[in-house]
Structure formats: C-alpha cells, structure tokens
Input
Amino acid sequence: MAAKVEIYTWTTCPFCMRAKSLLKSKSVDFIEYNIDGDEIARNKMSERANGKRSLPQIFINDVHIGGCDDIHALERQGKLDEMLGS
Output
C-alpha cells in the first residue's frame, strides 16, 4: 500500500522544488499544501511539525520527517523507499 505523503511548500522555494523532484523521481503521489504568504496555514504546519517553520515540511503517513535535507538523508541511507512502502 502506498504511503500518504504530504508536503508544505512555497512556489519559489528551491528546497521545496528539490524535495518534490525527489518524490517525483520515485513516482510518489503526494499532497502539496502551497502556503505562499498564508500565516494561518504556516502556523498550522508549524503545529504539526513540532514548531518548525522552514519549508518544506514533509510528512509520511502523518509522521513528520522534516525538510529537504532530511528526505534526501533518508534516501542516501536507503530508508526512504521503506517508509514510502516501495
């Protein structure tokens, strides 16, 4: 079964683009919350992300995994595919 992947982004954020590119390269479907300038949405994201406000913030099966560097670290460690259910 495919994992539920959610990512909070800004349109012009290079880290967001890089994280989405990794997911797309793995043919992972994800829900994107584009929160450009929306402080209410950013506050909601921050609550889910244990106070983190940087972008992107990524969740797999409702578990906060962090941002761009974190998802790429999981990929390098060979753990991302397992989390994604691949």
About this structure: The chain has a mean pLDDT of 96. Strands lie at 5-9, 31-34, 57-60, 63-66.
